[in-house]
Design a protein that fits this description.
The protein is of the alpha+beta class and 264 residues long. It contains 7 helices and 15 strands. Strand 10 and strand 11 form a beta hairpin.
């Protein structure tokens, strides 16, 4: 990758199969060829981390144009955004955020495994996460390599999943947000996706279900669907040999690809 990984660039693989930290690259200066190599490296390593990036100094419109190089931006259905730029989703934990109190009172853990944009008819292949502010410790994000998790399954079970379709919906999330006077940016929607998706470049197969948005397996009775989804959700969540944990620092960019994650 001569346009991305130049001579002075240092690469650290965070685990053998998942996650790579790259230093010595300023993403905002990449050429088109460099961006192409960035997308390929993300597809291969699933999670990329770059420190000391200057995106906070760029105009919001310029950031959106940069991201559009990789495809049509996805608009998150709820939550705050940059003024007049719904493509920018602001994730903030603190202050008067109703979700913190709600989760603390209703659940024993605040962790929610999910796949960003899985409800979209064409889910985003690449996500840019940029850290503006963070504590010195805490707030890590854990990612699961869904292709590696698929490879852990037996050939017979893999074959059982092939051809299955699952419904994804954010209607419940949007209704809950409205009930708590949160910010809603669009109406709820549903979409249908394969339980196992194949990457068009690498050819890898990966699981594409998550407990936040995946509601049912089409063609299965309720108990059948619930039990199969629970197995897949648990498999993705507890397979630590398929996971990588990212510790954040301000001005860091993380690029997860085809990911299954929870924020800490």
């Amino acid at each position: 990758m001569p346009n991305l990984l130049l001579q002075d660039v240092q690469i650290t693989h965070l685990t053998p199969a998942t996650g790579t930290e790259v230093s010595g690259v300023q993403l905002s200066t990449l050429t088109s060829a460099g961006k192409d190599e960035l997308a390929l490296l993300a597809a291969q390593r699933k999670v990329l981390a770059f420190r000391e990036q200057d995106f906070a100094d760029l105009p919001v419109g310029e950031i959106i144009d940069y991201c559009k190089y990789f495809g049509r931006p996805s608009v998150h259905p709820v939550g705050p955004t940059a003024a007049d730029h719904p493509e920018i989703h602001i994730a903030h934990a603190g202050g008067g955020d109703y979700r913190l109190g709600h989760v603390a009172s209703a659940r024993t853990s605040s962790m929610n495994w999910h796949i960003d944009g899985s409800v979209d008819p064409q889910p985003p292949g690449l996500v840019f996460l940029y850290m503006l502010e963070c504590p010195s410790t805490g707030g890590d994000t854990v990612f699961t390599n869904t292709a590696e998790a698929y490879r852990k399954l037996s050939p017979a079970f893999q074959q059982r999943l092939h051809g299955l379709q699952a419904e994804h919906s954010d209607i419940g999330l949007i209704e809950e947000t409205r009930q708590n006077s949160g910010i809603v940016k669009r109406e709820g929607s549903t979409s249908i996706h394969p339980v196992v998706r194949t990457h068009p470049v690498t050819g890898e197969k990966g699981l594409f279900v998550n407990p936040i948005y995946t509601t049912r397996i089409l063609g299965y009775k309720e108990e059948e669907s619930d039990n199969l989804l629970k197995f897949l959700f648990d498999h993705l969540a507890i397979a630590q040999d398929c996971q990588v944990r990212l510790r954040w620092a301000e001005q860091s960019i993380c690029l997860p690809f085809g990911h299954f994650r929870f924020p800490g």
